[in-house]
Structures are given as structure tokens and as C-alpha cells.
């Protein structure tokens, strides 16, 4: 009913103000839990929370959202920053081919990624070429060959050879002959990091001088990803990270930890077993995945766009001095409408899974709008002058009944009473909704 919506507008007004230690306390705890649940390194979480707290306190809350939501937006922006801000692209060498060397543990998804990347590059007009330098796993070369055939990308390999460095050397020549623009080198992995594996990778690096060494990491290993990335980085000085199996339950905490601890950007994420299941790494998407906050962030952005700060200030003043009239009420309704259909707004809020049919609420909002629009300026300012004949005219003009007009007036009066209580400080405190 309309009364509930009045309350909503109310909350928005109450939320208008600055973020303070008390009104972010709850939200701060939620964020901390989200980060830990997303498997972000504990130390990273601690530093992050401290930073956010310092930043949030004193921030103005935009009208149309509550402090908690405003806070989530701050957290999100900071997360995006921490994840590297924008997407970091692949380097392109001055001479062809640009050599990209893959490294990582066995089963991380290197071979799959080699094919995914080749496919991606091919679609952007490049001429990729692949080398399989996995001389340990039986059938590893065959696996890449099969994938190469599927996407029509040539693969160099030497069946039965144990000379990974030699394969890379000869493969590079072949790629040059073939006029390839990118050469992707798939390497062997181990179940754990060992000296021999690292030495071989270092030798390959020395021989082919890659523009990019990409560490392929299974996102599902969570916390271990950080140590892994550190070891590979110490040995090889990697240029970026690929997170695979991002289609599972993982919430992406590893991504945040790697970036913060190792300082290397994530460039792509693998989102499935198919060759096309590859996405550029988008810090914004990962941030909202880590926070698990639905689309609160875009809600806040919408509110920021829709609601003019000056309007909000004068509204607050009117409530305080009890001059809020039907015109102001109409403006508020229109602000809510600017945010989009009620359903889509509610869907953006976390925890609001299934919502019932909102058509009646939207219909009623339209009705109220029509009624107020059928009033004269004077009537909107002083609804008490509305007697039977005026009400009849308004009902007719808005295509409603006199009973609808009466209902609106009654609810408006109730709302004004609530505002009186609020502005005199008699309104009970709602945790997390405190304004100034
Ligand atoms: P490698 O040992 O590092 O070369 O790993 P593989 O490329 O052979 O992949 C190991 C397994 O992980 C295979 O079954 C792949 O299909 C699977 N895999 C690779 N990337 C992804 C991904 O992004 N999502 C999912 N769900 N599976 C993947
Ligand atoms: Mg492999």
C-alpha cells in the first residue's frame, strides 16, 4: 500500500547525510564476511577493511539510497582499484610473432587456455600458432593437436621427444616461417612446484624470450593460489595471471589476493571447458562477485544519476520546517520512477530473490501521480481547500474516483504526521538507517 511506500521515501530521507562509524558498522562486518567467504587472504582483508573505514567515514550519502548501500559502493570502487582498475591487455611485440609462454601446475588448464587464447586472438584478426612443450604427460601433445584442429590453428610438437627447449626453439622458427603474429607455448606442469620444472621453464624463457609469461591458476584452489603465484613469480618474473575454472563455486577471492600480494594483474578468466569459455578479466565484475552484493552498486549509480543533490537538500529543509506539500510528494514519486520499474530496482538488492507481482503498486503510483497532476498549484500547496466539488473535478481529470482522491489525501496527512515526528526527533532509530 501507499503507506509502506511513504516509509520507503522516509528511509531515504533518513539515510541522507554522512557515513559515520555507527552507520557503517553493520555493513563493514558484512563486507569482511564476504571477503573471507570469498577466500581472500586474511591479511589482505584486514588491511582492506581498515582502508575502507578511513575512507568511508564522512562521505556524503546520496539521496535515494541508504548509508549501507552507499558504503557498498565505496567498497566496490576500492575493490575494483585493488584488482587493477581496468582490464590489462596482452602485450604485442614489435616483431612477429609475439611470444606468450604459459606456466602452471598440472591440471590448471594451460592446454585448454592455449586453445582458448588462440581462438580469441584469431577472432581479433591475428594469426596464432601453438607449440606443445609438454614432454612429460602422455598424450599432452595430442591434446593440443586436437584442439588446434578444432579451431584451425597450427600446432608444433615432436612426438616422443624429451627436449622441451629444443621443441620451443624449432617451433619458434616454424611460427616465423608461417608468418604467425602470436606464438603460444604450452608447457608441462607438475602436481606441485619442483626445482626441475622451474629450471626447464627458465631454460625455455631464455631461449624464446617471451613478451608475456602467463601463469595459469585454477581459481578453485583458493588461498594456495597466492603461494603458487609467488613461487612462479620469483622464479620466472611472470607478466600476468590467468584464472581458470571460474565457472565453479569460487567467488574470486584468489584473484584479489594474487593482485594484492604478488602485484600481477589477472588478464583472462576461464569460465568453462569449451574453447569459447574465455573472458577478459573485468575488475568490476569480479568485485561484485566477491562482494556478493547483487547489483547494489549499479543501484547506487542509478540513484546518483537520477537524483539531483540540490533537490534533496531543499526537500530535507521542507520536511524540517513542515512545508512538505503534494508537489514535493509528486517529485519524490517521479524520482522513484526515474530509478526504473520497481521490480528491476528490487531485483538489484541482495536477498530479494522472488518478488511478487509489482504491477498493482506501479499502477497505484501512476494513479497518485495523475491525481496530483490534476490539481492546481494552489491545491497542491494547501490540500485542505479541497472540498467536494474540487475533488470531483480532480477525479474526473485524472480518470479516478473521488474515493481515490480521498485515500491519497488521507495517506498524505499520515505521512506528514510521521514527518513531524521525525523532524522533532521522536522517530525511533532504525539501525543502519541513521542519517547525520
Ligand atoms: P593443464 O594440465 O594445465 O594443461 O590442464 P588442461 O588444459 O588439460 O585442463 C585440465 C582440466 O580442466 C580439463 O578437464 C579441462 O577441461 C578443465 N578446464 C580447463 N579450464 C577450465 C575452465 O575454465 N572451466 C572448467 N570448468 N574446466 C576447465
Ligand atoms: Mg596440458
TrEMBL record:
Q: Which CDD domains did the record assign?
A: SRP_G (cd18539)
Q: Which UniProt keywords apply?
A: Cytoplasm, GTP-binding, Hydrolase, Nucleotide-binding, Ribonucleoprotein, RNA-binding, Signal recognition particle
Provide the GO biological process annotations. Answer: SRP-dependent cotranslational protein targeting to membrane
User: Which ranges carry the AAA+ ATPase domain?
Assistant: 96-297
**Entry GO CC:** signal recognition particle
Q: Does the keyword Hydrolase apply?
A: yes
Residues in Signal recognition particle SRP54 helical bundle domain copies: 1-83
Q: What class of enzyme is it?
A: hydrolase
Predominant cellular place of this UniProt entry's protein: cytoplasm
Which ranges carry the SRP54-type proteins GTP-binding domain?
A: 97-292
Q: Which family does it belong to?
A: Belongs to the GTP-binding SRP family. SRP54 subfamily.
Subunit description: Part of the signal recognition particle protein translocation system, which is composed of SRP and FtsY.
Q: Domain comment, in the record's words?
A: Composed of three domains: the N-terminal N domain, which is responsible for interactions with the ribosome, the central G domain, which binds GTP, and the C-terminal M domain, which binds the RNA and the signal sequence of the RNC.
Q: What does this protein do?
A: Involved in targeting and insertion of nascent membrane proteins into the cytoplasmic membrane. Binds to the hydrophobic signal sequence of the ribosome-nascent chain (RNC) as it emerges from the ribosomes. The SRP-RNC complex is then targeted to the cytoplasmic membrane where it interacts with the SRP receptor FtsY.
Q: What name does this protein carry?
A: Signal recognition particle protein
The taxonomic lineage of its organism, from the top, reads: Bacteria, Fusobacteriati, Fusobacteriota, Fusobacteriia, Fusobacteriales
- The record's gene field reads ffh
Amino acid at each position: 500500500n501507499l503507506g509502506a511506500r511513504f516509509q520507503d521515501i522516509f528511509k531515504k530521507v533518513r539515510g541522507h547525510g554522512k557515513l559515520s562509524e555507527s552507520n557503517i558498522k553493520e555493513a563493514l562486518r558484512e563486507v569482511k564476511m564476504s571477503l573471507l567467504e570469498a577466500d581472500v587472504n586474511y591479511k589482505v582483508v584486514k588491511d582492506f577493511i581498515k582502508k575502507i573505514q578511513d575512507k568511508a567515514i564522512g562521505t556524503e550519502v546520496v539521496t535515494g539510497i541508504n548509508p549501507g548501500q552507499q558504503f557498498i559502493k565505496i567498497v566496490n570502487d576500492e575493490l575494483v582499484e585493488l584488482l587493477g582498475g581496468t582490464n590489462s591487455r596482452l602485450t604485442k611485440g614489435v616483431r612477429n610473432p609475439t611470444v606468450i609462454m604459459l606456466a602452471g601446475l598440472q591440471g590448471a588448464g594451460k592446454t585448454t587456455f592455449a586453445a582458448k587464447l588462440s581462438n580469441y586472438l584469431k577472432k581479433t584478426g591475428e594469426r596464432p600458432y601453438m607449440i606443445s612443450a609438454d614432454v612429460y604427460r602422455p598424450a599432452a601433445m595430442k591434446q593440443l593437436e586436437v584442439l588446434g584442429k578444432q579451431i584451425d590453428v597450427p600446432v608444433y610438437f615432436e612426438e616422443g621427444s624429451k627436449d622441451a627447449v629444443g621443441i620451443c626453439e624449432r617451433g619458434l622458427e616454424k611460427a616465423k616461417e608461417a608468418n604467425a603474429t602470436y606464438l603460444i607455448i604450452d608447457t608441462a606442469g607438475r602436481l606441485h612446484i619442483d626445482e626441475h620444472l622451474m629450471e626447464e621453464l627458465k631454460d625455455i624463457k631464455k631461449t624464446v624470450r617471451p613478451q608475456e609469461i602467463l601463469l595459469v591458476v585454477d581459481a578453485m584452489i583458493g588461498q594456495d593460489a597466492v603461494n603458487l603465484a609467488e613461487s612462479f613469480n620469483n622464479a620466472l618474473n611472470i607478466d600476468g595471471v590467468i584464472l581458470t575454472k571460474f565457472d565453479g563455486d569460487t567467488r574470486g577471492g584468489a584473484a584479489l589476493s594474487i593482485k594484492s600480494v604478488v602485484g600481477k594483474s589477472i588478464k583472462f578468466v576461464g569460465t568453462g571447458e569449451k574453447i569459447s569459455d574465455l573472458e577478459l578479466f573485468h575488475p568490476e565484475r569480479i568485485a561484485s562477485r566477491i562482494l556478493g552484493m547483487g547489483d547494489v552498486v549499479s543501484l547506487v549509480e542509478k540513484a546518483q544519476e537520477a537524483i539531483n543533490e540540490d533537490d534533496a537538500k531543499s526537500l530535507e529543509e521542507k520536511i524540517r520546517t513542515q512545508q512538505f506539500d503534494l508537489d514535493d510528494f509528486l517529485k519524490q514519486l517521479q524520482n522513484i520512477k526515474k530509478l526504473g520499474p520497481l521490480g528491476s530496482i528490487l531485483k538489484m538488492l541482495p536477498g530479494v530473490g522472488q518478488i511478487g507481482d509489482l504491477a498493482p503498486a506501479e499502477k497505484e503510483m501512476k494513479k497518485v501521480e495523475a491525481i496530483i497532476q490534476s490539481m492546481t498549484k494552489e491545491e497542491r500547496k494547501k490540500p485542505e481547500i479541497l472540498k467536494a466539488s474540487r475533488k470531483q473535478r480532480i477525479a474526473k481529470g485524472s480518470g479516478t474516483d473521488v474515493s481515490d482522491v480521498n485515500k491519497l489525501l488521507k495517506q498524505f496527512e499520515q505521512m506528514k504526521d510521521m514527518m513531524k515526528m521525525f523532524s522533532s526527533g521522536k522517530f525511533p532509530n532504525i539501525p543502519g538507517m541513521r542519517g547525520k
